[in-house]
Amino acid sequence: MCKTRCSVTCSNEGIEVQTNSDDEGDDGQFLEVETETANEEYPLITPFPMITVTDLPPELQGTVTEKVWDLTGKEVGLIKGVEPVKVQVKPNAVFPQIPQYHMAQDVLIQVSQIIADFVKQGVLKEVLSSPCNSPIMGLKKPCGKVQIVQDLRQINEIVVKCCPIVPNPAVIMFQVPCDAEWFTVVDPSQAFFSVPLHEDSQFLFSFKFLDKVYSWCRIPQGFSESPSIFNQILKKDLESLELPFSSTLVQYIDDLLIASRTKDNCRYEQ
Prior knowledge:
Layout: E1 6-11, E2 14-19, E3 29-33, H1 105-120, E4 124-127, E5 136-140, E6 146-150, H2 153-158, H3 169-172, E7 182-186, E8 207-209, E9 212-216, H4 226-237, E10 248-252, E11 255-260, H5 263-269
Antiparallel strand pairs: 1-2, 2-3, 4-9, 5-6, 7-11, 8-9, 10-11
Organism: Pleurodeles waltl
InterPro entries: DNA/RNA_pol_sf (IPR043502), Rev_trsase/Diguanyl_cyclase (IPR043128), RT_dom (IPR000477), Viral_Replic_Matur_Polypro (IPR051320)
Protein name: ribonuclease H
């Protein structure tokens, strides 16, 4: 468009394309473009249906222990046999002390309940004080529920970063066999919170909420190193896994894809 010096005008009457000329006095010419109007039979944009899963599929009920599934959306696991993650801080780093952001009353109520649940499960702990404070936010999901997000941008600036070891999605998808027709997707619930954080590093991720100070006991979301750390831990944990029917397991950070050739193989190996 730039090389031909064309301009496009959109209006209720349709779309016009004007071709400009280099000749003085020549205003170029207009070209009419046929357009298709959206209607019920041929919509231009098809909305993606919202899917809500409240119960396990019938074919999975009774085949896997219920302890595996997060049926409430609030449960957090703990990876066993993993050394707590210790975070190294740059020399002469200045610890951030950022005031807490304002929250709407309805969001504050939900955030308060989430914090209480995390404290009960050992994901968070209350502390007397901390040299760091990174504010939290309550982000509303489309379903109306709230998710806690912490602004750790300044913490990410003062920690020593490791070489990121996160796979390229475009590359790992080549692992999927061309004859695979059945797939299982596994998405661990709140995966980063299943990795313990070393006690000496917990103060870095503190925040204040309702006149109390809390610190994470697990690696938090928003920490720049969390994806790489979890990716390596899960990858190592899956090294000994063998799928008896030769299905292919593809891992991307905390997402797992099992690609199988038949439905029976897929159901058995999931």
